[in-house]
Task: inverse folding
């Protein structure tokens, strides 16, 4: 009841006061979110409409086609991970599923495009938009806010508005007068499409306003089953399809004219259209619900979430849902800071998504239908990225969702014939991207930081099964030799370092639940990083199966030196579980901090940069690569070397230069919120350098004050005394009055709420 | 309890006395069934193992591939409707799903083949069996009895035995000594395969004896989802696969060596192998359960039906299940007659199949999972064939199954976006083969003959929706013009005749439930045959949309004269609902019976025969085509023309010449039991000339005595007095003492059981 009142108050305040509400508990935080940040170049986020963690992420696709008409690869797959690039001149249409910020692409399911005039069922090209159904558009008519997207489709004079619920995309198209208006549903469209990706697609016109169907695709998700139910606000006049797949056996379906007003359409290259007559300014609304289970599931979702045609209501509800989540952290900061802060927070609440129907049914990685028993099933786990800061952030401010995500991971493990926790999983599939078994630190960190609602023994079993897996990631070699040799895997050194860290978190989890033997085993395994530390060079190197160091060895090179998405200069610092041990190996505090200084100040020559993935030049500071994840903890390492002011300088620098309020304001892939989660933590003045340790490292806060909502209605207030632009240096930190002496903040100390007080100054405290 | 005792007694009697048990209630009737009858040429039945109406029909495939290596169509699709041709020299393997006697092909799912020696994963060719995994075989080592099939695979010295439960194929292979024994599961194999038929296939090796998986195919069934669970009696030593599909996107699955001992295999051209070491004479057993729902469904089916590895037990149970069904009719006749009779009865109990899991779940034609509520869901409805005699036979002796089949048809209708009852449906799909809406007469006949357990109003609605359907079969033209013009559909005249009959049955159903208005409408529609009766020629002709007769018109020609699977000579007699009216149109009794005489005595020139489908020359008597269904009632029509002795002669002739105890003993496709059902009825002395009329026409019995088990433990005893080879003429017929005067037997008179007594003589009773 209380909650209901809050909702009403908020809606009223938004309606009455627009974006000018005063800062209080119900300030409209969504006004600070700019979904267009990161839509140009490397950010790979989408500008469209979604609700927090919603399965439907309805967004314009400006291009997606990796192959030209001659079947030649055009290299655009990577550009279109989120379907949208800010500089593109045309919109192909609006599809319902997207990744947020990834470095690989898929999804883009169920593209809808409204048009008028001659019916065109191919998308055409950006050069010649009139060659297909796509349309020109301008950023001048484009508006993107949380849960709502609006643009004018210039070629058709159609005003397109999008909003969303968890499983429902809601389209509102304002047409000109036309006897020839169309809404196209192109079932061949997809992100990272290739000829043959659609294994099957099916459409049933149930009546003159309801259409159901599904498609099965084989892409990055090797077997993606997605069903839909689409409802029009106005009866369909005529409808039809083209099925351009020539190979498929037609059987006695050839008796029918399946292309015109025939209610059952099936095939592998199906493009459907629904035709209307419209008056000037007439709105046609389309509700589009999805399910991984069945069309019946999609209908259930639709009925539960959007049982009406009130577009404004769904738009307002979406905005409220965002407000409700964004209120998890309220800050006192400049409006500019609020934009980057709340846009970042927005990005941390997009992936993973609730991958289950309202009745709890979802499709497992065993391709079977399961019912989530007592949890919400989530999907899209980009774990190599997100174990670092996104999941620790969710553990802090989204404890229920974290518990649900862990139960989702354990269900994945139970369904895995390989006995693996998720590595990089999405939409009922394991796609095996990147390295490590980083579900393990997520689980361990969550348990250690007080998340409950899952069986820790089951979780430990799953972690051990993943960490001893005979199929995956050369773990057999790792267990035999203590490292993964570069001659069996070209990224073996990265694997070794990450396995050693993951192993350390297994030890922490085991210790926490009293399994000392297991803890000991994995504590030992966590020292494996030492096997690849080359005392002669002072870098982590690469060894072959015989134990010989790789020579020659280039610590600046990202490829073929044993690493992935990072060179030895960066990766040599990846020992978060034993930074003290690493510093010792590297020659003590001074030599170590000199090493860090060099990293931040050296110039990465162009030939090396060309080989660095997923980032822009803006994502570099010297050879430090913020646009990729392996370095995300690095700026905090000065703390361990006795030079915390250097951490404070670098954090301040990164926060202020690498998160900007412009379309290309992200210097690398947002990676399902990891880049943004780094920003949130670092803005608040602390960061989980080593998830599983129960500790955060102190950085340099860039907000004046912040209130973080914690479990059980507790609140942590972060106060920054002597807050000023130049006061970037921490003079003291107190948690509930107790002064921190080692720049380490215990999670257990803040979990009960209270005050975290930074005292800042313009000079380093040495 | 009583039933249990009977089972035990039967099993004991089979064990102790083999096939020599005396004739009594527990005589072993399975001894008379020869599954090899009809496996050569046109019969299109399979010789393998199944239980009555079982979903698994596990049988050897001797070839199936319609395209040669250059992709050229070889024309063998039709030959291999059941996967097996008696004269073939090799066996490709044993697959789990088959049609019985159809004229189109599909299925052949999940081919298993045991081999020894070098691993070969392609089937090879019949010319050069050593080029692949197939093996030579000989009929000398081949044994086929109900529920059991046995053959020696000569190339490998492997003795192969097959038996089955409803959802489980049970293989027992006796190997020679080998370090290199294999069991191949070829997921690319299928009947009517084409490149691209397999949309997706998936295999999970769950442990060293359990393998699960599925495939989705797009063939005659446009979207066929079939799941499996396979259990070996011996742990797998090694396993692997080849996936020859080059197009599919591989993603990060390429990290794994998926071809060797990798437990998750997926792709579009997947061939898997499981390797063993065997001792001389060692048996490896394979239990293979299927489900249209999920691998979990397959496992449930396996657990419920075959929770052990006792091959002999399953084989005996299968035989008992057959005995139990065959006992529905016991006859006194010569052993030769018993062979053709019980083989025919066997053929009538194969299709349709129980298409649902043990928990009631099945896949509907809307591709969704449904739970059958209070009925068993059946599939494989070859209705153009089977509405004539198979369903009337099942209505008589399988009332519960008939009720279930009708509920299955109504569920199909409920799921049909077109609002159609099944036309020719199989495995969760409508394949739209042939013409008519012949679910209608099945439903009407069943209701009129006392079958209950379904909602007659719902059934009537479904019949009317089908009969007024705007999408299907030019019904719109039919409703407008009273006939289907040949210029809009080349088979319009056949359609018109069959629609008119189907309409008549709607009228009967409507009348029976008190819907007189509807009855009147459809009574009128049932006279539409007259619109195509050409008084000038005395034949049913073809009209164009303007009402002009097609000229020239050749009543001997099967193609392009308005008909399908029959010429005008045969089809002109297709007015079962108004034979009296037809006789009048054709000039009275004498001219009509002369017409029939001509039909049976004329010679069909070779050029016409060449165009006649689905039959052998043996299937002709003059121009009468017994191998196709439109004539199945024709021999009985003499009764209406006052010359019943001519019916008796022709029935006697057909019964004795067209059902022979040899591999090519069927003169045409058995068509899911329709040909065989004709034989059963005709052998018993009566036949449902017009299902829905509640009447049978009297023919000439060819058994000496028969006992037919009826609902509610009633029995009808057919007694034939003066039974002798030459006494083919009926002198009198009495039902429970009441003499029949018009050669018409009321179903209501026999439903209560009692005696049907034929008195025979060597001379016609004129």
Result:
């Amino acid at each position: 009841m209380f909650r209901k009142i809050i909702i009403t108050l908020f809606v009223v305040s938004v309606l009455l006061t627009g974006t000018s509400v005063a800062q209080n508990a119900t300030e409209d935080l969504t006004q600070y979110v700019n979904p267009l940040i990161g839509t140009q170049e490397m950010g790979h986020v989408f500008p469209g409409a979604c609700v927090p963690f919603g399965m439907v992420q309805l967004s314009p696709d400006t291009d997606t086609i990796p192959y030209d008409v001659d079947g030649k690869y055009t290299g655009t797959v990577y550009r279109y991970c989120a379907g949208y690039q800010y500089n593109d001149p045309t919109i192909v249409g609006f599809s319902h599923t997207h990744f947020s910020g990834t470095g690989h692409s898929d999804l883009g399911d169920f593209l809808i495009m409204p048009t008028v005039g001659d019916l065109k069922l191919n998308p055409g090209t950006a050069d010649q938009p009139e060659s297909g159904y796509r349309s020109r558009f301008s950023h001048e008519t484009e508006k993107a806010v949380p849960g709502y997207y609006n643009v004018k489709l210039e070629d058709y004079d159609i005003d397109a508005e999008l909003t969303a619920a968890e499983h429902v995309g809601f389209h509102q198209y304002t047409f000109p007068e036309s006897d020839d208006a169309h809404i196209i549903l192109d079932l061949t469209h997809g992100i990272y499409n290739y000829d043959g990706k659609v294994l099957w697609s099916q459409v049933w016109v149930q009546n003159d306003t309801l259409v159901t169907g599904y498609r099965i695709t084989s892409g990055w998700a090797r077997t993606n089953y997605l069903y839909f139910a689409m409802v029009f606000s106005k009866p369909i006049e005529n409808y039809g399809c083209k099925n351009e797949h020539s190979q498929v056996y037609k059987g006695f379906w050839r008796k029918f004219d399946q292309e015109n007003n025939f209610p059952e359409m099936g095939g592998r290259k199906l493009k459907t259209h629904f035709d209307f007559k419209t008056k000037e300014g007439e709105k046609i609304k389309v509700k589009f619900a999805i399910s991984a289970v069945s069309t019946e599931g999609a209908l259930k979702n639709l009925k539960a979430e959007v049982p009406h045609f009130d577009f404004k209501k769904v738009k307002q509800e979406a905005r409220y849902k965002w407000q409700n989540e964004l209120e998890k952290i309220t800050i006192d900061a400049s409006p500019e800071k609020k934009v980057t802060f709340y846009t970042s927070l927005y990005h941390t609440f997009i992936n993973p998504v609730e991958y289950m129907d309202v009745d709890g049914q979802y499709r497992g990685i065993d391709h079977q239908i399961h019912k989530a028993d007592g949890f919400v099933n989530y999907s899209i786990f980009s774990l190599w990225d997100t174990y670092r800061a996104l999941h620790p952030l969710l553990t802090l401010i989204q404890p229920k969702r974290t518990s649900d995500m862990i139960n989702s991971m354990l269900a994945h493990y139970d369904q895995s014939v390989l006995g693996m926790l998720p590595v990089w999983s999405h939409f009922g599939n394991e796609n095996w991207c990147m390295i490590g078994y980083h579900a393990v630190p997520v689980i361990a960190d969550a348990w250690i930081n007080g998340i409950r609602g899952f069986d820790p023994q089951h979780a430990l079993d799953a972690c051990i099964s993943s960490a001893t897996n005979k199929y995956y990631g050369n773990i057999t070699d790792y267990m035999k030799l203590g490292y993964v040799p570069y001659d069996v895997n070209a990224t073996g050194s990265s694997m070794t370092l990450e396995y050693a860290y993951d192993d350390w978190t297994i030890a922490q989890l085991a210790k926490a639940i009293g399994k000392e033997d297991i803890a000991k085993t994995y504590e030992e395994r966590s020292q494996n990083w030492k096997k690849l530390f080359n005392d002669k060079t002072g870098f982590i190197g690469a060894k072959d199966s015989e134990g010989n160091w790789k020579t020659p060895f280039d610590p600046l090179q990202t490829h073929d030196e044993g690493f992935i998405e990072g060179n030895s200069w960066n990766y040599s610092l990846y020992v978060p579980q034993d930074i003290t041990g690493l510093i010792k190996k590297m020659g003590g505090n001074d030599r170590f901090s000199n090493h860090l200084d060099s990293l931040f100040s050296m110039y990465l020559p162009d030939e090396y940069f060309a080989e660095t993935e997923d980032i822009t030049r803006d994502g570099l500071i010297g050879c430090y690569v913020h646009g990729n994840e392996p370095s995300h903890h690095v700026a905090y390492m000065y703390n361990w070397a006795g030079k915390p002011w250097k951490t404070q300088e670098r954090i301040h620098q990164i926060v202020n230069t690498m998160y900007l309020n412009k379309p290309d304001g992200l210097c690398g892939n947002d990676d399902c919120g990891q880049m943004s989660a780094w920003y949130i933590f670092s803005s608040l003045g602390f960061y989980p350098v080593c998830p599983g340790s129960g500790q955060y490292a102190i950085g340099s806060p860039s907000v004046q004050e912040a209130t973080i909502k914690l479990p059980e209605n507790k609140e942590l207030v972060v106060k920054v005394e002597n807050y000023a632009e130049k006061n970037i240096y921490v003079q003291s930190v107190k948690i509930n009055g107790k002064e921190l002496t080692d720049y380490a903040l215990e999670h257990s100390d803040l979990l009960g709420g209270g005050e975290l007080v930074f005292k800042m100054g313009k000079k380093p405290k040495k």
In short: Chain B touches chain A through 45 residues (CB under 8 Å). The mean pLDDT of chain B is 94.
